[in-house]
Design a protein that fits this description.
Structural class: mainly alpha
Number of helices: 6
Number of strands: 2
Radius of gyration: 18 Å
Shape: elongated
Helix content: 40-55%
Strand content: 5-15%
Distance between the termini: 31 Å
Oligomer: single chain
Length: 134
């Protein structure tokens, strides 16, 4: 089953994203044990946007979780590249690539386009936090 962990700044798991069908199966199983708990569930507001349907390969998500790395770092590792390899392709320093791979990094559109070309993916798959102009 494909599972995505969402961790806090210290790397501690806080939430898990599971397939909807699995969620439904779990709810049915839980209902068999406790029909009265549903009133305790809290609705969480959300806003839909154009990036809701962007998919990431399981291998990228697994690397992010297993190695505790950012999305950009997971793509680089999956492609078998070093930070220096990416730096050479982008024409920047290795330390600049390291900064791009920070978990809170929000690369500019042109940088996302270049990274997507290097990693063979779409620019939407490079950053979980696209700026409004992205």
């Amino acid at each position: 089953m494909a599972v995505q962990l969402i961790k806090d700044n210290e790397g501690n798991p806080q939430y898990v994203v599971i397939p909807y069908n699995e969620y439904c199966r779990m709810r049915l199983t839980m209902a068999e044990y406790d029909d009265e708990n549903e009133e305790e569930w809290e609705d969480i507001p959300w806003e839909s946007d154009e990036y809701d349907d962007v998919l990431l390969p399981d291998a990228v998500c697994a690397l992010m979780s297993r190695e505790n790395v950012s999305l950009q770092a997971a793509w680089r590792i999956l492609c078998g590249l070093s930070q220096q390899d990416v730096a050479d392709k982008l024409g920047i320093s290795q330390s600049a690539v390291s900064q791009l791979e920070a978990k809170d990094s929000r690369p500019q559109k042109r940088t996302r386009e270049k990274l997507a070309a290097i990693y063979g993916c779409t620019q939407e798959q490079i950053s979980l936090y696209l700026p409004k102009e992205g």
